[in-house]
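Predict the 3D structure for this chain.
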Amino acid sequence: MDVLGRMLEALHPGGVVLDLQVIRPNPRVEVDGRVVCEIDGEPLFRWADAATAAVDARIAAGDLVEEAVDDHDMRKHYPNGADLVDDVAGSKRRLLESDVPRVRAIEGQVVVHERCRLRRLRLVDGDREASPASGGPLDRRGSTRAVSRRHPSSS
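Done. Predicted structure below.
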């Protein structure tokens, strides 16, 4: 089962999910408010676009309701350029090869500035019929049903 499906099964009817997404444009590497270069975010954006499409499909199917959206700036601080280069190397993002030596040489604080979207989503009541597109489990009659489960400790 996919991550989204597992997450929705863990919610009780009316439960809230916060969906944090990276959004375009590419993140910028900054020093003292000056842009040094951009990080190629396209590999991560392709992955994020697929995740967003899955959530949007659940909204369209009536399994989720989007209650709020907030696009905002996010800044991640690094003590130096080398830490940033190492962090990016272990991610879906990439610095251009020509930018790596220049960024690695930065001895002071470096900031990555990017855009994010936070969506508040609410799970629709699990007793109603879900559409086949929702991917919900089948009930005894062979139709799909949105299913909600409570965590054992929430009794």
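Confidence is low (pLDDT under 50) at residues 128-155.
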